Structures are given as structure tokens and as C-alpha cells.
């Protein structure tokens, strides 16, 4: 696994449900690299904003 892949995978292994439960609502995630699983985070309840997407 390359260095960039390691960086990307570390964000995918977070316990997003636990993070969501601890946040004020609405809970926003700003994905500056557009590497997160949009459907998964939206299903949890996050408002996901991809930065740099048209």
C-alpha cells in the first residue's frame, strides 16, 4: 500500500456513527479530497460537502 493510499484509508476507518452521535446537529463533514463514502455518511445522517467538486 502506497503512502497516499494509507492517508486515504485512515479516514475510512473512523467510527463515523460514534462521531455523528457526539456532534451537534446538523452534523457536517467537509471532504476536501473527495475520498469519503458519500452514501455511507449520508445514511448515518451527515450533511456531506465535497470541496472542489462542481
TrEMBL record:
Gene3D superfamilies: NAD(P)-binding Rossmann-like Domain
Database matches in InterPro entries: UDP-Glc/GDP-Man_DH_C_sf, UDPglc_DH_euk
Position of the signal peptide: none
Highest taxon of source: Bacteria
Protein name, UniProt field: UDP-glucose/GDP-mannose dehydrogenase family protein
Reaction catalysis annotation: UDP-alpha-D-glucose + 2 NAD(+) + H2O = UDP-alpha-D-glucuronate + 2 NADH + 3 H(+)
Amino acid at each position: 500500500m502506497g503512502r497516499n493510499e494509507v492517508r486515504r484509508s485512515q479516514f475510512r476507518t473512523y467510527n463515523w456513527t460514534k462521531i455523528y452521535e457526539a456532534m451537534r446537529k446538523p452534523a457536517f463533514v467537509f471532504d476536501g479530497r473527495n475520498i469519503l463514502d458519500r452514501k455511507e455518511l449520508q445514511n448515518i445522517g451527515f450533511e456531506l460537502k465535497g470541496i472542489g467538486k462542481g
